[in-house]
């Protein structure tokens, strides 16, 4: 293991940190087992969703219909003890349908006053289902909430619950009648989590488990308060100097003209900003904790490079015409980590 970056070492007692980490690892292991009794064959997706929540961020689940994206979010909410709301995004959805609105009340004496009725965004876990089907105006209503953790209605600030997470879903196939998410909103998502088809064994198990007389139901394992404590623990985990340098090198190399690779010199149109470095720093810590380790490694950086970077960069027209994809570029960049 590389030497620790002293600026990242917490001032707290190391023995206490280890004890807290051990307790968190046990809780996370139990949570994964509880999720696994309901969600089959999506181990990587479950891991990345947990990384997103442990890191205190928001996730974008991308996959075709029928892969249990909605069920995963509902299961996560139950297992982690979070208050969950679901919003089906449609072209006619208005910002007030998400944030809430003011209504006029009249008391017994005829006095009138406005009262704010909170929308579904006032939940600890908000599922934005098919987020790209709503208009840009409605999509932007989530921007302040996702970044600032409060909303402003009629000049009045309303704080969101803690913790607050958005897990949005998106169908990569049907693009007719959709509105691509703006780069500013994509950047608010800690990870893009690609949900792929399950393998044959997982699908076989799914057939029996979900079509019988009874179906497994998720059980609560932890609470919102304990999740907040684990999020703080993630931020206190030490990070080795080599890991910090690998994060910086990877993110900076994904920007135009900074790859250091002649074959990629003109391939990248725009790349990730400093928020990507922050996201990767938190994500590798969370992944280490999930695996029962007290500090992240270079393997964590390589494993999370794609979900952190793929929605934060775009290729030039010439590169796309040559058949190059964002995943190809990231694979080439992360191969130089170490």
From TrEMBL:
EC number in record: 3.6.3.-
SUPFAM superfamilies: P-loop containing nucleoside triphosphate hydrolases (SSF52540)
InterPro entries attached to this UniProt entry: AAA+_ATPase (IPR003593), ATPase_AAA-3 (IPR011703), CbbQ/NirQ/NorQ/GpvN (IPR050764), ChlI/MoxR_AAA_lid (IPR041628), P-loop_NTPase (IPR027417)
Keywords noted in UniProt: ATP-binding, Hydrolase, Nucleotide-binding
Keyword Secreted found: no
Domain AAA+ ATPase per the UniProt entry, residue ranges: 55-199
Family named by the database record: Belongs to the MoxR family.
Protein name as annotated: MoxR-like ATPase
UniProt organism field: Kaistia hirudinis
